[in-house]
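#help-structures
NK: newbie question, is this the right format to request a structure? protein is Glutamate dehydrogenase
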Amino acid sequence: MIDRFNIAADILKLDESIRQRLQRPEKQIVVNFSIVLDNGKEQNFEGYRIIHNTALGPSKGGIRYDTAVNLEEVKALAAWMTWKSAVTGIPFGGAKGGIICDPSTHSKRELEKITRAYTKSLSDIFGPQKDVPAPDMGTGPDEMGWLMDEFSQLHGRIVHGVVTGKHLHAGGSLGRVEATGKGVSIITLLALEKLKLRPAGSTVAVQGFGNVGIHSALFLYEKGLKVLAVSDVSEALYNPDGINIPELILYYNLNNKSIKGYPNSVTIKHEELLLLEVDVLIPAAKEDVITRQNAHEVKAKIIVEGANGPVSSDADAILEANNVLVIPDILANAGGVTVSYFEWLQNTLVEKWGVNQVNRQLENILEKSFETVFRTVKKYNVSPRIASYILALQKVAETQSVKEVALTAENYKQN
Ligand code: NAD
């Protein structure tokens, strides 16, 4: 994140003080709390909430429950959220949170206690106009519902807008579950158009068959693309005639959420999927899967980053030299935060939108963002990734500078 930030900041000749300001979070909070487990013993937990920047609006970002959660990672993820909202023009800043724990070892009741205790520790930080959490790895609509309820109890009124990613009946939005994959598919179609490729018959490989991978594969399959390969942590599947994605989803749901053993395909090695001869490669599993080591072997014409950070910064130049069009995460997977914004908006306005309204507005925002990024590509003669960072940095830095000038003037008056 910092490598790409610095390239964009150099191009913009960003002032050193604002550069330093934007490289560091506005606030970093470490919390420590205990709960009584089902067996009667007490367990202590450490959690974080990092507010990277609020120049463009209330900070927004997920909460992760994972044993690998650490302060440095949460800081980077919080900054990513700032750039993602800025590039799509959503009036939010960036934040991220996490608790060091293994959710699979806790009962529902324990997870509820953990979530409520974490919320209590941060009840002054959260708020619909301050900091708005969302689900991330290890958390979902249940945790968001508990967070909203705890916050509402502490503030003596129902505050739906304090969190997004809630269950539908608890103030969630239609279209949120599939929003990131839908966004990835919208961006993929726009990228194909850039290369004058027709969707029907174009080929795609998708790494990861979770929330992002499933919906990306499904929407593209419905648009007539041939999904030649998909993988999850258990297996990588390949069919040169295209995999029937609705049938695979059915199999996955009946097979304990795993694609292992799906019959109408052959298995390939996980790493082979990334190097297949396809029009589009969608890495939608995890970070750093395309690196200096394998980037020169990538044969896809387009990479659409469904996951956060799947291409490492040392692979950027190799892919660019090989004419691979890379659509960066901060644009490609911004469908999720966009529909989170719609959820927050519906909560704030006490409205309920239909799924067509959600999808139409999502498409509008992503199409506009895509066009703006490609105009910036031309203007600065840079890759779409650096163009996205330039756009985001420009917006945040300008607003931040105005705020700081105002603050300085205020101090001057007071003195
Ligand atoms: P998920 O947990 O639902 O799915 C992850 C998938 O990746 C699973 O199918 C898992 O088996 C697979 N996987 C893990 N390691 C793998 C490997 N080595 N090879 C192949 N497959 C592997 O997660 P998700 O919500 O789909 O998120 C995926 C990525 O997208 C993450 O980087 C996440 O931060 C990012 N993202 C998610 C959202 C969202 O709304 N869910 C939004 C923006 C970005």
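mod (FA): yep, format's fine, and the tokens are attached above. The domain at 173-415 is CATH 3.40.50.720 (Rossmann fold).
NK: thank you!
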